[in-house]
């Protein structure tokens, strides 16, 4: 088997049946690891029924109590043996042909460690997908709803961090850890999975405390995700931007958002070469042909409205960012990115790993 797909399940028999039927039908050659996370009797019978029908293509693991979503995922991943480790939650239904594009991309891109399908809300139609949907784009976060991991990444980085909130911080942290180990995260736009709504359970105050603590642990480990808005004057060339692409990608892979303010002509040229589809955290905004100074200020204000922690950057040292005296020079932006890469994104030694697990209470 080329891939083992972990399916953590806690109740919701209707959605679970839909998930399992779609997986069995549209995942040729896969082995399934069902984690019965202390389900109710109806869901438990369903899992037994499907596992028995699949015979050697299924492994059913039952816990004595609900151990939580992330621990259940880690339990399933620890039982996987294939070169690729899949994860699909029981609130998801995979679309026809969802798996081959992911595996094909992974085979041809050895640095792709985390591969995710395009997640659409249940009830959406694949026919209404955007026509310009990119076949593959680097992503800023992993997904605990549906993703595929390369075994080499899993063996180096381990499982998901059980000390972090599953909704946001756990997935974001895993993408940072993948980058630290030399792997990238991608969304494969030609692979589609549909996701049902999920009810929030438990005490709202406890939930808020978990999210607050998770955010604090994430920032201690990686610092804050920031936003940079970089102004390039009209005389900047396409070649000049291309030469800096590695730096923009380094910032994006660290979790930062990078917005490039460029002329309309340069924007078109960069889009033609695929710049707008390189990484979801890298965006281009066109400066107006007239009154470019005011246009730059308005674009910066819009970016700051979306991301309050936005720093203005002069794209060319010595040429000011219009109306933004506090903008940092491009050389300072480069220093910040390179320093973070050296300090926080170098592979950990075994001693570092042990220390981080002890400090966070999770898998670092």
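-> sequence recovered:
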């Amino acid at each position: 088997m080329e891939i083992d797909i972990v399916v953590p399940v806690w109740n919701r028999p209707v959605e679970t049946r839909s998930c399992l039927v779609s997986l069995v039908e549209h995942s040729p050659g896969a082995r399934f690891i069902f984690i019965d996370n202390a389900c109710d009797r109806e869901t438990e019978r369903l899992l037994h029924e499907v596992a028995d029908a699949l015979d050697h293509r299924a492994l059913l693991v039952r816990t004595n109590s609900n151990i939580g979503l992330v621990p259940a995922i880690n339990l399933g991943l620890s039982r996987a043996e294939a070169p690729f480790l899949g994860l699909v939650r029981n609130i998801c239904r995979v679309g026809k042909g969802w798996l081959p594009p992911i595996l094909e991309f992974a085979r041809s891109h050895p640095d792709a460690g985390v591969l995710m399908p395009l997640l659409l809300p249940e009830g959406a139609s694949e026919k209404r997908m955007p026509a310009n949907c990119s076949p593959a784009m680097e992503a800023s976060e992993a997904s605990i709803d549906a993703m595929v991991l390369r075994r080499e990444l899993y063996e180096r980085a381990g499982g998901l961090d059980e000390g972090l909130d599953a909704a946001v911080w756990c997935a974001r942290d895993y993408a940072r850890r993948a980058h630290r180990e030399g792997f990238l995260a991608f969304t494969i736009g030609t692979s589609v999975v549909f996701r049902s709504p999920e009810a929030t359970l438990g005490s709202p105050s406890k939930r808020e405390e978990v999210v607050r603590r998770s955010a604090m642990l994430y920032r201690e480990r990686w610092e804050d995700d920031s936003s940079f808005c970089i102004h390039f004057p009209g005389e900047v060339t396409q070649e000049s931007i291309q030469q800096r692409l590695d730096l923009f990608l380094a910032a994006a892979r660290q979790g930062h958002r990078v917005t490039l303010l460029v002329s309309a002509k340069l924007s078109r040229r960069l889009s033609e070469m695929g710049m707008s589809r390189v990484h979801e955290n890298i965006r281009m905004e066109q400066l107006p042909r007239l009154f470019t100074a005011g246009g730059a200020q308005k674009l910066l204000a819009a970016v700051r409205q979306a991301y309050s922690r936005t720093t203005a950057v002069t794209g060319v040292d010595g040429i000011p960012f219009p109306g933004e005296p506090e903008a940092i020079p491009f050389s300072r932006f480069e220093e910040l990115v390179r320093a973070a890469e050296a300090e926080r994104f170098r592979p950990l030694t075994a001693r570092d790993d042990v220390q981080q697990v002890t400090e966070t209470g999770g898998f670092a």
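Confidence is low (pLDDT under 50) at residues 353-364.
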